[in-house]
């Protein structure tokens, strides 16, 4: 099978979509499946390689990690005609995604897509709610020609079906349990950030309004004093709110900036709890990474996150924006270390069952089904 992927976000950009597709092409390399990837340019990256083709781009105002590219349509057409893919996968609803749809139709190549981001839920954070109807109308139009639209969670599937989307199927997410594991000592990190408190609470993610970081800061402020004195917060990530949040930080709070790889795994592993109040996630990759490191999560009962966390077993679910519930859940778990240890084991066990190999193998089977169905229809039409 030959696969052409069109996405407006990819490495070195840092977000769940970019990281998922980087892992996917790594998997395709491992199993020997040919692909071509059409993506925006990135800092310190070559514009072209044998398999990856990059185009000049500019950040999208609602989601800077997704970039508005200026794809060279002549170059794309030439490459597709030479490569002759069996299927095209469009990942994002911007310029490169539009180019993928155009050439799938023009060259009669089976077309699938994926939906990764609830853009409409971001609007309230930027006072742009009036755009909601337009965005949904555009997204329905964008996805209408896909043989399948893949989504990461049942919540997202239900949302799209209720919005009039068709051919919606689940494509879940995995985690690398060899990279993300619980076997780290806290000594190095505690020395680096001069942490003396016995317990560490962490947040990892983009520092932007749609992550409900105002809720996170309020949670940190409202912890009871007997808990406040025992915990240290580590906030990892970059984004437009970085400077503002730095100005609000508490004495027991450290901002690390963006971290990745083993340093990120170490942070998850040495944390006693991961706190994630975001209510806009279609999945929540960071929750699964935290589980892999044996760290339970206190998260918002919303979006894809509520499908990962089993309340009372691998963490706690709280109503979105309900600071009191988050504070009570954190307080309860810090006070009950035996419960926290059991949750840690359950979280790790859950993550061990979510391998990328299985996730990507299932996706390839979905591709094969689409290709076979398309070929069968063509054969019948030619009878």
Task: Show the helix and strand layout.
Elements (H helix, E strand, L loop, with lengths): L1 E5 L9 H16 L2 E7 L11 E4 L1 E4 L2 E7 L3 H11 L3 E4 L4 H12 L4 E4 L4 H4 L9 H12 L5 E3 L2 H9 L5 E3 L16 H7 L5 E6 L8 H10 L2 H4 L2 E6 L5 H7 L4 E5 L3 H10 L2 E4 L8 H8 L4 E4 L4 H4 L6 E4 L4 H13 L1 H16 L3 H26 L2
Parallel strand pairs: 1-2, 1-6, 2-3, 6-7, 7-8, 8-9, 10-11, 10-13, 11-12, 13-14, 14-15
Antiparallel strand pairs: 4-5
Organism: Robertmurraya siralis
Pfam families: Glyco_transf_4, Glycos_transf_1
Keywords: Transferase
Protein described:
Helix content is 44%, strand content 18%. The longest helix is centred in the last third of the chain and has 26 residues, at 356-381. It has 16 helices and 15 strands. The chain has helices spanning 16-31, 73-83, 95-106, 119-122, 132-143, 154-162, 187-193, 213-222, 225-228, 242-248, 261-270, 285-292, 305-308, 323-335, 337-352, 356-381; strands at residues 2-6, 34-40, 52-55, 57-60, 63-69, 87-90, 111-114, 149-151, 168-170, 199-204, 231-236, 253-257, 273-276, 297-300, 315-318. Strand 14, helix 13 and strand 15 (315-318) form a beta-alpha-beta unit. It is an alpha/beta fold and 383 residues long. The model has no long low-confidence stretch (mean pLDDT 94). Helix 8 crosses helix 14 and helix 12 (285-292) crosses helix 15 (337-352). The protein folds into two domains: 2-174 and 355-381, Rossmann fold (3-Layer(aba) Sandwich), CATH 3.40.50.2000; 187-352, Glycogen Phosphorylase B (Rossmann fold, 3-Layer(aba) Sandwich). The radius of gyration is 22 Å and the shape is elongated. A seven-stranded parallel β-sheet has the order 3-2-1-6-7-8-9, with helices on both faces. A six-stranded parallel β-sheet has the order 12-11-10-13-14-15, sandwiched between helices. A two-stranded antiparallel ribbon has the order 4-5.
